[in-house]
Write a structure and sequence with these properties.
Layout: H1 3-7, H2 16-22, E1 30-37, E2 42-49, H3 50-54, E3 62-66, E4 71-75, E5 82-84, E6 97-102, E7 107-112, E8 114-116, H4 119-128, H5 141-171, H6 179-189, E9 195-202, E10 205-210, E11 216-220, E12 231-233, E13 240-245, E14 252-265, E15 268-281, H7 283-288, E16 295-310, E17 313-322, E18 331-334, E19 343-346, H8 351-354, H9 365-371, E20 377-378, H10 379-388, H11 392-397, H12 401-410, H13 428-432, H14 436-445, H15 449-460, H16 467-477, H17 481-485, H18 493-503, H19 530-551, H20 559-562, H21 567-609, E21 621-622, E22 628-631, H22 636-646, H23 654-658, E23 663-669, E24 678-683, E25 686-691, H24 700-719, H25 724-731
Parallel strand pairs: 1-8, 9-13, 14-19
Antiparallel strand pairs: 1-2, 2-3, 3-4, 4-5, 6-7, 9-10, 10-11, 12-13, 14-15, 15-16, 16-17, 17-18, 19-20, 21-22, 22-23, 23-24, 24-25
Helix pairs in contact: 14-16, 16-18, 19-21, 21-25
């Protein structure tokens, strides 16, 4: 529709008959007239507000033009041309119907709010929208609603097409990844997801099933250690597997990982994110499911990121597989952040060809991905960091794979890395802060930043650690540099690690990280071997045990005390002795504080006697005319009992009173001096609070008493009525 041509039509005016009729249209909000314009191709509806007609205003409020495939509304309330695109059901300040619910009849009713002026107007509208009318329609507005709904759907489809058509054009040339990628995913990337399922058949014998080679047979348990969740080798194919006791298997083990496949582009490359699932069912699940297989595997692509280089600058544009604005089927749409795929594994097979024409040509990330094929981390961040720190290539080429991963995680947040890396240094030795021998040691075990820190400290202490010793120490004590620095160790670190390894074989595994595996991002991580967890749990308890022995003054030069046999039993016994000693010290400290608090309160009482006169027969101080007395507590127990009686927290103030940080007084009724009433705290030469039962506020008599008490105390302190020591007792808090 030509808006300029339509807006040039004369603005309609209401007739005198319409103005007169307005007073009789109770409940109606608008009057509408209809006419055909532009050679009968457009239906024009003019709307007049009934409320304005009643005031004699004849201008139309707005007019709507409807063609066979479009509609638009002109706002006539202002002189300038203003167009509205909303349909009638969304137009502000306008409604065709009013919905009402009758509570008596339990029926709903739609009351019309627009009055069609003449039968001729109604006939024009019905004739124009004949194609949208149904026999069940009671009025023409239903047909107009259908028409406008159709136009809105077409408008939305066109709006979506403008967004999605370029995406379809960009995705069209992208084909399926190579078969080599699929094979690599299941053979290398998911190689951590291999299990040896066993069940004891007789003493020393077990039936063993390997999910990788899918062979089943009887094995001798004296030759192979079978423990649930521990890692080992398949006796048939030799692949590394996780042992699972058949009777302890969950219904289904679900292993999943994200993988990146890199496609070559003209000015960059495309990162394609695939998610792979492998489900391993237990026997009951196999019996109850339709698919009678032990293993089910699936893989789908969910995200794509186009990386384009403009010189050295990298620009990214991401898309995800989803439903665009809840319309239609799943397809490629702009990235809305619904796909969490950054922790992923990079396929190295085609990398040299995929980005040989880009600045990533010498990044060596394909070497890193090849060396740690089951480790997921943010490779997209690795690309960004390599462009800032090209020396990342050195880590990949020297076999420092775990450290390269840690550098990617910590480059922008170097404070998160325990082992410090000097990014501005010129050589790999200066970057790591290690000499050549220790650098080779770190390379030999593919150490992470914690093991780097251990080597850095060991080098400072002139301790030379072999690769197997460093790995053994880290698997036992983690990054405990304090143990390295300890000067009075009774045995070598190697012997200590061997002792813990031996004792930990029957040590409980504990609950470390137990509830987190399978949740959050941890389901993309491979769980630590339980044997290592046992060693770490025992090492933690052993260090705790040595601390207890020092406090108990045990002879740690005695080997049977320093490294006892049956450590768990000895640990629990010493824990009981340490608790008893701790309780004894705590009781002695409590008694000391009680005596100090009593001494402080006695000093306070003597200072108070110089300000207030003592009442005969009552151990208290009285301010005349208020019917209340002031009681100075004699011990910490009295303060605690006051807190229990009045249900507030003054019982926790005993230590503050003992330290002279505050003073506590009891406000009692003169005729019931033994009964708790209010508790007052005096601090910094003023009453900071006075609380009654359940921390209630002060009534008028208590408030007046406290004000008089505070004034007398301040006057006495200012006039110097007390000596220096007593004055300090009242001012110290």
């Amino acid at each position: 529709m030509e808006k300029r041509k339509l807006s040039a039509l004369p603005r309609p005016e209401a007739t005198a008959e319409m103005v007169e009729m307005a007073d009789r249209l109770d409940g109606m909000e608008h009057i509408v007239t209809a006419e055909l314009v532009d050679d009968n191709k457009i239906l024009l509806l003019n709307f007049y507000e009934v409320s304005k007609l009643k005031k004699g205003k004849t201008e139309a409020a707005f007019r709507t033009f409807l063609s066979s495939d479009d509609y638009i509304t002109q706002d006539l309330s202002q002189s300038k041309v203003k167009w509205l695109t909303a349909a009638f059901d969304n137009m502000q300040g306008f409604r065709l119907w009013e919905y009402k619910w009758d509570q008596k009849t339990w029926k709903s009713e739609h009351i019309p709010k627009v009055f069609i002026w003449t039968a001729e107007d109604k006939g024009i509208m019905e004739s124009f929208f004949k194609a949208y009318c149904k026999e069940t329609d009671e009025n023409v507005w239903n047909a107009i609603d259908r028409f406008q709904d159709k136009v809105k759907a077409e408008r939305l489809a066109e709006k979506h097409r403008k967004v999605l058509a370029p995406i379809d054009l960009r995705m069209e040339p992208i084909g399926e990844p190579s078969q080599d990628f699929t094979d690599w995913v299941w053979e290398q990337g998911m190689s951590f997801s291999r299990y040896g399922i066993y069940k004891e058949t007789s003493k020393g014998k077990a039936e063993f099933e390997c999910t990788h080679c899918q062979k089943t047979g009887i094995v001798d348990r004296s030759r192979i250690r079978l423990r649930n969740n521990e890692k080992g080798e398949c006796p048939f194919c030799g692949s590394r597997v996780t042992y699972k006791a058949r009777g302890k298997m969950p219904c289904q083990i679900s292993d999943e990982r994200w993988f990146i496949y890199v496609d070559r582009q003209e000015e960059g490359f495309l990162l394609r994110y695939f998610k792979a699932w492998r489900h391993i069912k237990n026997d009951a699940m196999i019996t109850g499911s339709i698919c009678k297989k032990r293993i089910e595997e699936t893989m789908h692509e969910y995200s794509r990121c186009f990386c384009t280089f403009f010189g050295e600058k990298l620009m990214k544009e991401s898309y995800e597989w989803g439903v665009y604005h809840q319309k239609g089927n799943s397809r490629w749409i702009p990235d809305e952040g619904n796909i969490a795929c950054m922790e992923c594994i990079l396929y190295p097979g085609n990398l040299p060809e995929a980005w040989e024409h880009t600045p990533m040509k010498y990044s060596a990330l394909e070497i890193l991905a090849q060396n740690i094929p089951t480790t997921a981390f943010r490779y997209e961040d690795a690309i960004d960091i390599y462009l800032k720190f090209p020396k990342l290539e050195w880590f990949c080429k020297t076999g420092l794979n775990q450290l390269a991963k840690d550098v990617v995680k910590g480059y922008n947040y170097s404070g998160n890395m325990t082992g410090k890396v000097n990014y501005k240094a010129d050589t790999i030795y200066e970057i790591l802060g290690l000499n050549k021998v220790n650098t080779r040691t770190l390379q030999a075990i593919d150490g992470n930043h914690y093991e780097l820190r251990l080597l850095q400290v060991a080098q400072q202490l002139d301790i030379q650690m072999k690769p197997e010793q460093l790995k053994e120490f880290y698997e036992t004590f983690e990054c405990n540099t304090d143990l390295l620095k300890e000067k009075n160790r009774r045995v070598s670190l190697h012997k200590l690690c061997r002792y813990i390894d031996k004792e930990s074989k029957r040590y409980p595994i504990g609950e470390k990280n137990a509830c987190m595996w399978g949740y959050s991002y941890n389901r993309y991580k491979e769980r630590t071997d339980p044997r290592i967890e046992r060693k770490q749990n025992m090492a933690h308890d052993w260090l705790e045990y040595i601390g207890w022995c020092r406090e108990l003054k045990y002879d740690l030069d005695n080997k049977f005390i320093y490294m006892p046999n049956n450590f768990k039993k000895v640990h629990d016994r010493v824990a009981g002795e340490y608790k008893a000693l701790h309780d004894k010290k705590a009781a002695a400290e409590k008694l000391r504080r009680e005596k100090l608090a009593a001494k402080r309160m006695e000093q306070t009482k003597k200072a108070m006697e110089e300000i207030f006169s003592k009442n005969d027969g009552v151990d208290a101080f009285q301010i005349k005319g208020k019917g209340l007395i002031l009681v100075v507590p004699q011990s910490g127990d009295e303060i605690r009992k006051e807190g229990e009686a009045l249900d507030h927290c003054v019982g926790g103030y005993v230590e503050r009173v003992a330290k002279g940080e505050t003073n506590i007084f009891f406000v009692r009724k003169a005729d019931h001096p033994e009964q708790s009433y209010f508790t007052m705290e005096w601090k910094n030469n003023k009453v900071v609070q006075c609380r009654g039962k359940s921390n209630c506020g002060m009534p008028p008599d208590v408030k007046a008493f406290v004000q008089v008490f505070e004034k007398k105390m301040q006057d006495a302190i200012q006039k110097g009525d007390t000596n220096g020591k007593k004055k300090q007792n009242l001012q110290s808090a």
